[in-house]
Structures are given as C-alpha cells and as structure tokens.
Design goal:
This protein has helices at 8-31, 55-71, 80-85, 108-112, 182-189, 204-212, 226-238, 267-280; strands at residues 43-48, 51-54, 76-79, 99-106, 119-126, 129-137, 142-147, 151-154, 157-158, 170-174, 196-200, 218-220, 242-245, 261-264. By secondary structure, it is α+β, with helices and mostly antiparallel strands. It has a 7-stranded mixed sheet with strand order 3-4-5-6-7-8-9, sandwiched between helices. It is globular and about 50 Å long. Its EC number is 3.1.3.25.
C-alpha cells in the first residue's frame, strides 16, 4: 500500500510485487476455476457475437477494483466491464488522479472456447502517461511486467524485442474486420504488400507480449480502448519497441488517435508500418 507521503514512483519501487500478487489472486480465484467450466448462462454478448463477457470477466474485475484501490488510496479504477455499464467512467483516464486501467480477461472469445490464449491486463497511469504494467496469461503461466524507465521483464528475466531480420517478411497481426470502419479497412489494405505477411490478431495483450519477446514484428490495430493497449504498449516500449498512429504520432491512451496504429519491435519498423497504413488510406 502507498503511504501518505509517497509518490507513485516511490510506491512502484516497492509495490510492483503487491500488484502482481493481486493479479495472480484474481486469476486464481475468479478466472481459472471457470476456464473450460463455463455454463451457458455465464456467457453474454455485449455489442455482438464477437464481443463477449463472462462471469469470469465481471468477478475478476470486481476483485481487482477492490484490491488495486486498497493498494493506492485516491486512485481510480477504469475497467472494461465498468465502462460498459457506465461509459462516463472512462473519463478518469483523462484526469489527473492515478488510474488503474484493467482488462480482466483480454481474449474473452478464446477463454469462452477453451483456448489458453487469454490474459489479464493491468496498467497504472497518470495524466495520460502509463507508468507501469502487468500482463498475466494464467493458462500459459506467463507473467510480464514493465515500469517506465525501468525496463520490461517476463517471469523476472529482462525482455528485449530486437529488430526484424532483414531477409524475411514482416509478421504483422491486424484487427478483426468486424471492428474496422471502411476507411480503416482501406488503411489496413496497405499492409498487403511485398515484404509483409499479415494474420488476424488474437488477444491484444498477448500480441504485445509477442512483440516484446521478438516473436511478432508489429501490429495493425484499429480500436482505441485503453484497457486493451495501455499495458502492452508500455511493455513494448520498455523492451525497445515503438508505436505510431497512421498520422505518425505515438498512440495516446486518452484517445483521439488517427487509426489504425501500429506497435512494433523497433522504431524503424513502426515507421515502416505506419507509412504503409497511411498509404493504404
């Protein structure tokens, strides 16, 4: 827990493990007991058949909201399910109070279908800047962390994204067509060119982890929801990567970005992909 006289940076110097423990407990208590055990009444659609929510999402977010708020008094929690219930909750990301940005189950479709490719995402931000992040894939037993200016790590080992090999196509994960406008579809078509190989994205959090590990070269994403991106973007940055919108600007968790945008293993790759997205539009 943060002390009254502590800054957030001082809290993070000793509190990263406390947050990790809260994330692990939320998964152990509310998510994994429901993995491959969901009943039909525990799964609902939100905006359509590709936008699902389960009891695991709701219960894990409730757990994390209580636990993270207790660790950092005066902070605000912005969770995916809370915003779905009350969209005005999202405005806290643009405020000055410390804010926890939470996606309890990123990759709910995978979770519902018994696929282990899902994760829990938590980021701590203030004034629109992400200060720390936690990415936990409980079914894969992977835990990644990042702290601004302090590097990224996977299960305690430093992460470095490196650069793509110059003699092979870029591997790029892109948004599902159901979540793109006509203009964004045209922009993403710019990636259908020689030297680039695209595939549909899975869990956004795990795609960011793949970039930080040097297993994926870049993304082409067309939505802004901060809970999907905040944790992973910092993880990629601290592993040596970069992110840019189609307008050539870094992605802002506060919104108003020119989409699609990319996160990539290094700055040169981010610039290349952003230029292709701009050309496609």
């Amino acid at each position: 827990m943060i002390e009254d006289s502590e800054t957030i940076e001082e809290f993070l110097a000793h509190g990263m493990s406390d947050v990790e423990e809260a994330v692990r407990k939320a998964a152990a208590t509310e998510i994994m007991p429901r993995f491959r055990q969901l009943a039909a009444h525990e799964v609902d659609e939100k905006t359509g058949p590709h936008d699902l929510v389960t009891d695991a999402d709701r219960k894990a977010e409730e757990y994390l909201t209580a636990a993270l708020g207790a660790l950092l008094p005066g902070s605000v929690v912005v969770g995916e399910e809370a915003v779905h219930a009350n969209p005005l909750t999202y405005e806290a990301i643009r405020g000055e109070a410390p804010v926890w940005i939470v996606d309890p189950v990123d990759g709910t479709r995978q979770f519902v279908h018994g696929n282990p490719g899902f994760c829990t995402l938590v980021a701590l931000a203030q004034g629109g800047k992400v200060l720390a992040s936690w990415t936990y894939a409980p079914a894969l037993d992977l835990f990644a962390t990042a702290i601004r200016g302090g590097g990224a790590a996977l299960d305690g080992a430093p992460l470095r994204s490196g650069s793509p090999a110059p003699d092979r196509p870029l591997e790029v994960a892109t948004s599902h067509p159901d979540f793109t406008t006509d203009e964004e579809k045209r922009a993403l078509l710019g990636l259908r060119t020689e030297g680039v190989r695209t595939r549909p994205c899975g869990s956004a959090g795990l795609e960011y982890l793949a970039i930080a590990r040097g297993e994926l070269d870049a993304t082409g994403f067309s939505w802004e929801a901060a809970w999907d991106h905040a944790a992973g973007l910092l993880l990629v940055e601290e592993a040596g990567g970069a992110h840019l919108t189609r307008a050539g600007e870094p992605f802002r968790i506060t919104g108003d970005n020119v989409l699609p945008f990319t996160a990539a293993r290094d700055a040169a790759t981010a610039q290349r992909v952003a230029a292709l997205l701009a050309d496609g539009a």
